[in-house]
Structure formats: C-alpha cells, structure tokens
Request: fold
Amino acid sequence: MKNILLLTLTILLCFGCKDTKSSQETDNQLVAASDTTDCVDTVAFGDTTFCLPKIEGMTQGYDDPIIKAKADEFDDPQNTILAYYVPTAVFKQRDSLAFITYDNYYKVYTSNMAKNYEMKPVEVQEVMRGMTGGMMNSTVAEVNEDFKNSNKPLEIGQPTLVEKYEGYNNSSTAIVLMGLTTDTVDKVMAIAMNVLLVKDRLVFMAHYLDYNGQASIEQLKENNSNFLKEFYKVNS
Reply:
C-alpha cells in the first residue's frame, strides 16, 4: 500500500515530467462497446473490464493516435491510462493539436501496482491522504481573494490544496491549484483529483480546468461530479 501511495502522488503531480512510455497495449486494450446504451467503449485492465461513459460535449479519444500521444506526454510508465476525454471541438482539430492550448479535459487511469488487487473504501481514504499530505494548504476564499486583488496573474509555486471532500459513491476528491508553465503556456489550473473504488478496484480520475476565480472552481466541481456519476452508473 505504501508503494501505491507514493506512486499515485507522483503521477498526479508530475506535469513537467516526460517519462519513457510503458507498453500498455496488453493491459489497456480497447474493445468493442458493450450493449450498455451509455457505454461508448470498454477497456480491460488486468482481470477487470471498465465501461467508458458518454459525456455530453466530450470525446473519449485515447484510442486515437494523436490524442494518445498527447495524453502519454506526461504520463508515468507505472500507470495505465484507461481513458482521456477532450472537448469534441478539440478532438475535431486534433491534426493541429500541437498548436492548440485547451483545458476542460479528463484523464482516467490506474496504477499498475494495483492490478488485480481488491480494494476497500478505507484504502481510498488512505491513498487520498498520501496524495495530499505534502501539499500546501489554503482555502478557496483566500485564493479567490488573491486572484481578485492582484494586478498580475496569480502565481502558484507548488500544488495547493484548497478543498477536500468525500464524493460520490465512496470516492474521495481533492481540489488543487497548480501552476503550469511551458514554452508557450503560463497559467494556473484547477484540478479535481479523484480516488475511486470501482468494481473493487482502485481507479483515479483527474479533471483539469483553467483557474479564473470562483466561477471556475464551481464549474470544475460540477463537471467533476457529473463525470463521476456517469462513470459509476455504467460500471455498476
């Protein structure tokens, strides 16, 4: 369990790390959609098959080579990505993805170390505590006030935990702000980090949205809740 805690923390926070991709073809094999109306694809991981839900306005694109390459860019080789949802408008422009800056996307993944292990609700909480234990702490109100009163873009030097709560169906959610700086981007992202228990297996989901004050936090939480409900519904 200790290894899983360390691994998941590294995975969620490593925005700038470019690691060598692991071979995922066997464990992350997309197969034909099931008969479930709301299931757009299924994905097998170890001895468990997960259904990937339809999400309005989004396209699950991890089986597309261009989208997959983008999703894998900052992935950890000890993880397996199960799904990567982008706005449908972005998916339609994927041939120009290298020149597009976008937000409002979802990544569903799991740890290879947790493959075929049955987990319990208490372990969901343990993993979340391990993921957030080393973060700076603030409140949404404090961050929003800084954003409102600042004459320059908000600077977040390290991941900052602004809220943590028990979510839908034994899930645990943390709302985190993180600065993202590349050659072409300098912004703050609001991230909903989720630890889920689905079919007795540990699954992670992260939703990313550009931070732009309180409205973006509220939208992030609403989007996140809706995604979780759909994901649990098709995997019940």
User: Anything to note?
Assistant: The longest strand covers residues 186-198. The helical segments are 2-13, 65-72, 88-92, 121-132, 140-149, 214-234. The chain has a mean pLDDT of 82. The radius of gyration is 17 Å.
